[in-house]
Amino acid sequence: MPRCFWCTDDPLYQAYHDEEWGVPQRDPQHLFEMLLLEGAQAGLSWITVLKKRERYRQVLHGFDPEHLARLSDDEIEVLMQDPGIIRNRLKLRAVRQNARAWLQLEDPAGFLWSFVGGAPKINHFSERSQVPAVTAEAAAMSKALKRAGFTFVGPTICYAFMQATGMVMDHTTDCDRYEQLKAG
Questions:
Q1: Which of 15, 104, 129, 139 falls 20 to 30 Å from 172 in CA-CA distance?
Q2: Domains and their CATH numbers in the chain
Q3: Whole-model pTM above 0.85?
């Protein structure tokens, strides 16, 4: 099956590409998980995060924002000892901060989807060089999230989040998933 240029031969990566990436997601819980994971990925490869995703789900209580908003500094220090996750104190503190900010949003899914007008933006890129790292929509999302109290939500992270959750569909035209998802 032809896949996007970024997808390696790793079975976990292929499953993510084939089943999840670019598929429109509106479930607030899934959106929250992906926003936190994209923040954890900053400076690392996505496959690193994918390999640690299940452990994150375990230690972060299924990405429950209510629970994560109450994490103590001591609990963050315990998480810092877990080799199954990315042990970065700033990123782990961002989990707590972002959970608190998330809980302040009246309609988190609607808020996030508003940056693409509520419907997936279907792109028609044929080459790797055409796929942007940042867009005006991602920059606007980043700015709004930061204003709302979120951290680790720069424009590049926001665009990766938008791609992952199907707010934008960036499977290239030579990818098998492009035809499946282009109808929106």
A1: 139
A2: 18-181 (1.10.340.30)
A3: yes
